[in-house]
Amino acid sequence: MFDFIKNALNAFAGPMATVVDLAGDALGLPPVLTNSIKAATGVMTGNVMMAASGMAGVASELMQNPSAQTEYCPSPEVGRASAGYASPPSTASAAPRGGTMDPMSVTYRDALKTLAANFSLFDTLQGKKGDGKFNLQTLQEAATHPSLSPELREAARFFLQHPEYRHVLDIANKGGNPDGTFSQQDVQKALKKVNDDIAAYGVIAPPVASPGCPPPVSRPPPAGQPGGPGSCAPPPVPLPTPLPSPGCGGSSGNVRDILNNPNMSMEEKLQAILMMITRDTDDELLGVMSEMASLREERATLGSGDAGRAAKLDTSMEQLNLRLQKLMEKRKQMFDLMSNISSNFNEMAKTAIQNLGRA
Predict the structure, then answer these.
(1) What is the pTM of this model?
(2) What count of other Cβ atoms lies within 10 Å of the Cβ of residue 334?
(3) Spans of biased composition, class Low complexity (predicted)?
């Protein structure tokens, strides 16, 4: 079904879709990666049909070539039931070794300690009067600021590279929906929470390599931690740092990480890829609005004798307005595409359930 949809959409996508397919074949890229690039190119150029064709190709490849799964099945012969594996542990020693929290929680705690000890520096890093808060732009500046210590830059990079922990920090004080800012209360409460969780649950000890032993069974993290019960944050998704701007061609590795993530369903993978593209559009929107604000401020300072400069500023403002409208339309198309994909998956699930009921 997806192949038919992809071929139909390719017919309307224009020659660019064919060029991407031929380039992917010539370079020997996997079909999943080629279709992901096609979807990204379609969104960045405003070609909705090309983007839809790419997503349909990704869905088709994932349906035809699902991730391999293996499961240990013991031999029915008692004498050979544990052949190749360590002997089953006795009941007395069945208690799990180590804790239940991800070892990354320790790095998260260390980054929070650095933020707490240097909060006033983050609060005033962008030259603004301290208001007790900082935002994502502050973290981006701190990550590469040459005058900051390596510990401060590493703490900023951690939260840029781990949006799931950034989400937990954002809502640590008041809960609810994230607002994109981090207060001193957020940092203190998040630090207290992770300290309490590590003390209560412990951290998973690194597995000891032993030939013939099956991999350890993973356990869910405690409530309130990223991915654990009661956390409204999505499961961790590999994200670039910093996010690649449109046209830079640096997102193929991140798309591959999402596609190879065994903890995500096909719908979640498609949505994650589209969200990566949407974030690029949002960054471009913010840049355009920032330019418009600068032009307005400069226009307000001009006098009556600066007619030539005022005309140039008005022309630039009109161009930015057109660019802003195109970006808003592209953003709307992306959300419409994600909504249609979710609706199609829901319909497929309903049909499958109905067929099972008739069987």
Answers:
(1) 0.36
(2) 20
(3) 81-99
